[in-house]
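Saturday, quiet lab. Running sequence design on the structure tokens for the scaffold JK sent over.
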């Protein structure tokens, strides 16, 4: 899929077909994640791949009952790794850059999934402690985003976007 087509095609999907994500597609998504820009090229994030149904069900509960997460065959958990960023950038790296790095990586994964014909939804509402426990993450890995990925079982709802004149401020 051409890049700008992927941007337009991407939408949040909360119903998934009972079809696993092919390993080749997962590998391409993870390769895209690895290409994401990061502050100082430190890649101050970690990615946890969750495919087990029992863990996805636990993630759904930890995400305030967003049960579609259990239905998606794949979840990627993006964690900020403050220690990696703080070594070079101090407090700003620990408090901001690692979060930016993790969310940019998640965005790359989301767009790669779309380009591969898959659907996804970004989940930000969850109990960090519970998610950490589910993925057995060390304390240094702070969960900041979950991306559920799979084949859509629903048509995306088309949502309007802000007019550029409301969004862009030229100086």
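Result came back. Writing it out in full:
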């Amino acid at each position: 899929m051409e890049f700008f087509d992927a941007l337009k095609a991407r939408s949040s999907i909360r119903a998934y077909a009972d079809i696993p994500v092919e390993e080749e597609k997962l590998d391409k998504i993870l390769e895209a994640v690895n290409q994401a820009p990061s502050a100082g090229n430190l890649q101050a994030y970690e990615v946890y791949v969750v495919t087990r149904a029992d863990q996805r069900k636990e993630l759904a509960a930890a995400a305030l009952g967003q049960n579609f997460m259990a239905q998606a065959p794949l979840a990627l958990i993006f964690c900020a790794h403050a220690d990696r960023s703080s070594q070079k950038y101090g407090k700003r790296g620990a408090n901001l850059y690692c979060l930016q790095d993790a969310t940019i990586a998640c965005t790359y994964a989301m767009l790669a999934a779309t380009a591969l014909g898959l659907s996804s939804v970004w989940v930000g509402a969850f109990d960090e402690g519970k998610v950490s426990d589910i993925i057995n993450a060390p304390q240094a890995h702070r969960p900041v985003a979950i991306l559920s990925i799979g084949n859509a079982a629903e048509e995306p709802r088309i949502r309007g976007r802000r007019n550029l004149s409301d969004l862009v401020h030229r100086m």
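Notes for JK: The mean pLDDT is 95. The first helix runs from residue 3 to 9. Ask whether to fix the surface positions before the next round.
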